[in-house]
Amino acid sequence: MKKLIVAALLVVGLTTYAQEKEGRRAGREKLTSEQKVELQVKKMTKDLNLNEKQTKDVRALVTKQVEKREAKRKEMEDLKTKMREDIKAQIQAEKEAVSVEMKKILNPEQYAKWEKNREEKIENFKEKMSERKEKRKSQALPEK
Asked: How many angstroms separate the Cα of 38 from the Cα of each of 8, 63, 71, 98?
């Protein structure tokens, strides 16, 4: 009985923590490069009690950092996109190779049935993924 209560408390605690974390992320808005620089410079000026020359120099340095960071982020996004495209091409090539091999092994009737079953599996998978996506969207929407 004690184990059941402890398990229930853990589940409730973890669920609450996960929801709070999601809420904090959802509240963030995208800042422009200039806004990021300004926020960082203002914070440093306040925290370090910078004079005007120091503020100007820090702004130049922070601007360079933000630009480099955003360029790197863009580069990584492009790399991810390219990798996804490469992976999709590999998967498609593998599917075609399997299809060619199955055509050699099966008779025309069996091959047609195999192809139909394969397409049905793909459709079922797409439907499940779509349902999961919708479920996530409905859970992510804030309740009023």
From this structure: 46, 9, 19, 56
Query: Could you tell me if 122 and 130 are in contact, meaning their C-beta atoms sit under 8 angstroms apart?
Result: no
Dump pLDDT digits (tens) for 97-112. Answer: 999 999 999 999 999 9
Per-residue model confidence as pLDDT tens digits over 112-123:
999 999 999 999
Instruction: Give residue 142's pLDDT.
Output: 61
Quick one: which of 85, 46, 81, 40 has its CA closest to 59? 40
Q: Give the Cα separation of 19 and 12 in Å (integer).
A: 11
Q: What is the DSSP string of 25-44?
A: HHH--PPPHHHHHHHHHHHH
